[in-house]
Amino acid sequence: MDADIFCERWFEIDKLTEFDKEKAKKAWGYRARCVRLLSAVLNKPTNTVDKWGSRFEKMPKDLESSLFYADSIRLLIKTMPQDLLYLYLSKNQI
Predict the structure, then answer these.
(1) Which residue segment(s) compose the domain that 25 sits in?
(2) Residue 79: strand, helix, or coil
(3) How many whole angstroms separate alpha carbon 55 and alpha carbon 4?
């Protein structure tokens, strides 16, 4: 998954119109939040992620699958009933 799309989905701006999406991306702090998010998810230093370009177009292609997996887990957790999630966490002592 492309890093720019991953950030759009994570911060829930993917459903906006193109105009509103671009406006959200240009808002103060959006890119910095994406850098921190990608850094945490991919376990890369923030200064490395920051060097991947304004829309992260220089991110190594081999990391795209990791973003796809992370997004899949995000979707599962988001759609999972909360009581089921809490039951899982308590059973596994997480």
Answers:
(1) 3-91
(2) helix
(3) 6
**Domains identified in the chain, total number:** 1
CA distance 46 to 26: 19
Convert the pLDDT of each residue in 22-61 to its tens digit.
Answer: 999 999 999 999 999 999 999 999 999 999 999 999 999 9
| 81 conformational bin, left if phi > 0, alpha if psi -120 to 50, beta if neither | beta
The whole model's pTM is what? 0.83
Go through the chain and tell me how many residues it has: 94
Q: Match 């459903």 to its residue by tokens.
A: 15
H or E stretch covering 5: helix 3-10
Helix (H) or strand (E) holding 48: helix 46-50
